[in-house]
Amino acid sequence: MRRPVLWRSFVLLTGVTGLSWTMPPAALAETIGLDQGYVMIADDQWTFRFAIGNARFSAMTLPPLGGFIGSGFDIGCAALACVPGQHLDMNNSSDGTVPYGTGDVYYHGVAYSDLAFAGRWQFRSRGADAPSDGSPTWTPKAPFAFSGTLTGSTRGLNARDVFSIMVHGDGIAHADLRLGEFGYEFAPGGTFTYKFNAAPATPEPASLLLIATGAAVLWRRMRHP
Questions:
Q1: What pLDDT band is residue 25 in, cutting at 50, 70 and 90?
Q2: Cβ(53)–Cβ(202) under 8 Å?
Q3: Confidence bin at 175 (pLDDT 50/70/90)
Q4: pLDDT at 4 over 80
Q5: In 3D, which of 210, 150, 152, 203 has the Cα closest to residue 23?
Q6: Of 129, 137, 152, 216, most Cβ neighbours within 10 A?
Q7: How many Cα atoms are found within 13 Å in the side-chain-facing hemisphere of 120?
Q8: How far apart are CA 174 and CA 34, in angstroms?
Q9: Cβ 41 vs Cβ 192: under 8 Å
């Protein structure tokens, strides 16, 4: 059962935008450029989550969150420890279409909850080399380019696709590492994150509200399980 704060946020969202909760037929595939949000692997039982979108579209995973194993993602040498001078590979590509958890979506003026996500994603990045000067912390950063697909489907016996889109974007990949006994390893609470570049135009409040609410709920649930 969803907690009251999430329900209130969706009531507010529909009140602001005057949306209908009626589910229309699945939209034809279209291409959407992402300029908000992130895709993240977090060092809290290696959970995988995302909150992505633009001014008129947003999709985000909500608890319970799954691990990144099976998502096609890899965190390179950071999985154990990157020795000084070692290259951290920030390329990632799913092996075909894979599940990406469940969550909520705002798309074509309609808000949907509890959809199952699946997609085929590819991140291209030059990565970064671990410092050789003994720095106690390391936050590697490198630009990335992203492309792929995303499908959202209802769950249950009568499951159906609500939308299926092509997505693309770019931004900065980064990780939070510290120097340990064997090299640079994840700092407590660290992340391996692809953060999308913001668009120059001001996004619409409804889309930002959905992403911001999801991020707040995720943080609260992870801090107080």
A1: very low
A2: no
A3: very high
A4: no
A5: 152
A6: 152
A7: 7
A8: 18
A9: yes
Distances 164 to 38, 46, 183 between C-alpha atoms, Å: 19, 27, 42
Q: Which of 33-47, 93-107, 142-156 has the lowest mean pLDDT?
A: 33-47
CB 100 within 8 A of CB 117: yes
Q: In what order do the strands lie in the sheet with 184-186?
A: 137-138, 177-179, 184-186
> Parallel, antiparallel, or unpaired for β 57-61 and 98-107?
antiparallel
Task: Read off the tokens for 111.
Answer: 């808000």
Q: How confident is the model at residue 70 (pLDDT cuts 50, 70, 90)?
A: confident
Rounded to the nearest 5°, which phi and psi values hold at 125?
Answer: -150, 145
Q: Is the pLDDT of residue 17 over 70?
A: no
If we measure between CA atoms, which residue out of 69, 76, 36 comes closest to residue 192? 76
How many CA atoms are closer than 13 Å to the CA of 110, on its beta-carbon side?
13
What percent of the chain has pLDDT above 70?
76
Contact 10, 113 (CB under 8 A): yes
Question: Which is higher by pLDDT, 49 or 46?
Answer: 49
Q: Are 117 and 59 within 8 A, CB to CB?
A: yes
Hey, is 217 helix, strand or coil? Answer: helix
Judged on CB neighbours under 10 Å (0-12, 13-18, 19+), 123 is buried
- How many whole angstroms separate alpha carbon 109 and alpha carbon 214? 18
Q: Do residues 141 and 179 lie in contact, with contact meaning Cβ atoms separated by under 8 Å?
A: no
